[in-house]
Amino acid sequence: MGGRDITIDVLVQPRASRSEILGADEAGRIRVRVTAPPVEGAANKSLIELLARHYGVSKRNITIVAGARGRLKRVKIAGV
Fold first, then answer.
1. Which among 39, 38, 58 has a CA at the least distance from the CA of 49?
2. What HEC string does the chain produce?
3. Which of 9, 31, 61, 62 has CB atoms 3.0–4.6 Å from 22's, for a disulfide?
4. From the CB of residue 24, how many other CB atoms can be counted at a distance below 10 Å?
5. Hey, is 53 helix, strand or coil?
6. Alpha-helix runs per DSSP H in the chain
7. What does the DSSP 8-state code read for residue 40?
8. What is the DSSP letter of 59?
9. pLDDT by residue (tens digit) across 31-66?
10. Which residues contact 68 (CB under 8 A, 6 or more apart)?
11. Domains of the chain in sequence order
12. Percentage of the chain modeled with pLDDT above 70
């Protein structure tokens, strides 16, 4: 697998009208909106799919390493 691994802090807004990456906030966190509700991991799955498309990696290369049950998450992306 080429590339390097990165870790980013992500602030997620579930139940948005559309899924999109908004950019970084003043604290350096990446702000993301997803349409999925925060129920049974649906928002996390949607976040992983969105980040995989954005960074051009497979979904299996993305891991939520902290904050899986909250809005603020730390995400590791392998092979960027």
1. 58
2. CCCCCEEEEEEEECCCCCCEEEEECCCCCEEEECCCCCCCCHHHHHHHHHHHHHHCCCHHHEEEEECCCCCEEEEEECCC
3. 31
4. 13
5. helix
6. 42-55
7. T
8. G
9. 999 999 999 999 999 999 999 999 999 999 999 999
10. 41, 44
11. 6-74 (3.30.1200.10)
12. 98
Give the per-residue pLDDT at 7.
97
Q: How many residues does the chain have?
A: 80
Residue 80 and residue 67: Cα distance in Å, rounded? 22
Q: In what order do the strands lie in the sheet with 72-77?
A: 20-24, 30-33, 6-13, 72-77, 62-66
- Give the tokens for residue 66: 């902290």
Tokens of 9: 């802090």
Q: Other CB atoms closer than 10 Å to residue 13's CB: what's the count?
A: 14
